[in-house]
């Protein structure tokens, strides 16, 4: 009987101490930049599909934990050194001039399709928000050329970045 009481006290103490963490735990699903699961799908082909029908990879390329700061006025993302280790291989995947499609997801909802381009590309990106890949820990998500509504300014993105303390400006 004493053993059960001690065990119960120990488990209760552990649960109480674990739940009173002072730093927020950020779930991957709150915000993420995801590559498409079908790596053979071109950007043009992805644009011809509904956003909801596009399947993304299980693990995000960048999530909230990898973001140091997000400058909302410039849509400039500063990432941690750990996140940079995750994205530096993208250069080899963006060798083609058609770029690499990605999807921004907030709270498990697909917000918009974008494209990652190599910095040296002379091609104009498709009419999507786009990132020029450069070997830096900062990158800018640029506005689509002909887009009347700037998809980067989605309120759901703003809210999750603000709630997480990553938002600047």
Characterization of the model:
The protein has 169 residues and is α+β, with helices and mostly antiparallel strands. The chain has one domain (26-168): 2-Layer Sandwich (Gyrase A, domain 2). It is built from five helices and nine strands, in the order H-E-H-E-E-E-H-H-E-E-E-E-H-E. A hairpin with a 4-residue loop joins strand 7 (130-133) and strand 8. The protein is globular.
Using the coordinates shown, work out and report the CATH topology. Answer: Gyrase A, domain 2
Instruction: State which percent range the strand residues make up.
Output: 25-35%
Helix content: 25-40%
Number of separate helices: 5
Which regions contain 5 or more consecutive residues with pLDDT less than 50?
A: 2-27
| Mean pLDDT score | 79
Strands of the biggest beta sheet: in what spatial order? 2-1-5-6-7-8-4-3-9
- Overall structural domain count: 1
Rg over CA atoms, rounded to whole Å, is: 20 Å
Count of beta strands:
9
Second-tier CATH architecture:
2-Layer Sandwich
Distance linking N and C termini: 59 Å
Outline: globular
Structural class: alpha+beta
Highest CATH level, the class: Alpha Beta
């Amino acid at each position: 009987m004493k053993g059960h009481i001690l065990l119960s006290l120990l488990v209760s103490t552990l649960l109480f101490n674990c739940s009173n963490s002072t730093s927020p735990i950020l779930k991957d699903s709150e915000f993420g930049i995801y590559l498409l699961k079908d790596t053979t799908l071109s950007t043009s082909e992805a644009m011809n599909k509904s956003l909801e029908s596009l399947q993304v990879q299980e693990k995000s390329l960048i999530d909230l934990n990898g973001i140091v700061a997000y400058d909302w006025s410039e849509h400039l993302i500063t990432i941690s050194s750990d996140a940079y280790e995750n994205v530096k291989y993208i250069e080899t995947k963006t060798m083609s001039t058609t770029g690499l499609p990605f999807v921004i997801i907030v709270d498990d909802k697909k917000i918009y399709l974008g494209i990652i381009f190599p910095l040296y590309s002379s091609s104009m990106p498709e009419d999507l928000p786009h990132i020029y890949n450069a070997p830096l820990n900062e990158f800018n998500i640029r506005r689509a050329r002909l887009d009347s509504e700037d998809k980067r300014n989605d309120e759901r993105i703003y809210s999750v970045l603000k709630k997480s303390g990553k938002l600047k400006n």
